[in-house]
Amino acid sequence: MIDFASCLTEYAVQVSETSCSAYSNSSCISPNSNSTPSIQNAVTCIYRIVPSTQKQMLVTLTWCKNSLFQGLNVFFGKDPSSSIKLNTNSRFFRKLKGSKSIEFDGCKIELFWDLSAARYLTGPEPVDGYYVFITVDSELGLILGDMAEEATTGKKIQTSKKMAKFSLITRQEHYSGNTLYSTKAQFSETGTSHDISIRCGGGGGGGDEGFKYPALSVSIDKKMAIQVKRLQWNFRGNQTIFLDGLVIDLMWDVHDWFYNPGSGCGVFMFRTRSGFDNSRLWLEEKMTHNNDQDKLDQFSLMIYACKNIL
User: Fold this and answer.
1) What is residue 278's predicted lDDT score, i.e. its pLDDT?
2) Mean pLDDT, to the nearest integer, of 63-80?
3) Is the dihedral of CA 278, 279, 280, 281 positive or negative?
4) What is the chain's mean pLDDT, rounded?
């Protein structure tokens, strides 16, 4: 008898459309562009906070970095007026430590942050030396950073003893550069963090054939998860993998790399699901804002890959 995991990984579901949009400015995959990883310039995380009142709230945090700006943007629900923007690299306007409060949906929301000692690697998101946390009507909600526990338990910031439930439901990472992308992902609260590598380039056919027919390969913890040959024909598709006891749909769409280089980008998506979920795989907005509890309990990682002109 074939077990459940084997059944799922043996038969892949092909998808034919995507609702994602971004930009790109390259027309081909360079066979020599895989030696240096692409640069991560934005990370957007959507969290679900459930206070003791059981009135859930979506919070979106975007870390971004470019030649002129580096900072954090936070907004609540779908209301643009609830946005709080922090510029961390401006000489005159930056505020690396502080707090701000707003009223949203009948609740008093307070944002506390300290990025004065934050340490960054190549991306816009700090790796340590910082805290960011949110309270909803004085109830602790979202807590991020290695210094958050010290800040919330100290006397400097007064909060109630109540602690809201929160979970990460969507993470989007934007890259620019070549066709090698590396990141980490934890697909469940109890799971481990995995190294993910996405490489696009020569198909390995030998001689000019390997460069004539580019291929896509995805590795998890340095082990090959999928390989797609002749990518210019199989530019959009889906493969199911089994990891940490979870069923994960791995989807890709690199159509615009080949056929719309002036305004498109490659999109890669990892999404957990429960059993045989036959919902349309690319409807990210429906997934993150649907009121159905099962949909909100899922997790997705979106990678937007914008290639530069070489």
Assistant:
1) 52
2) 86
3) negative
4) 75
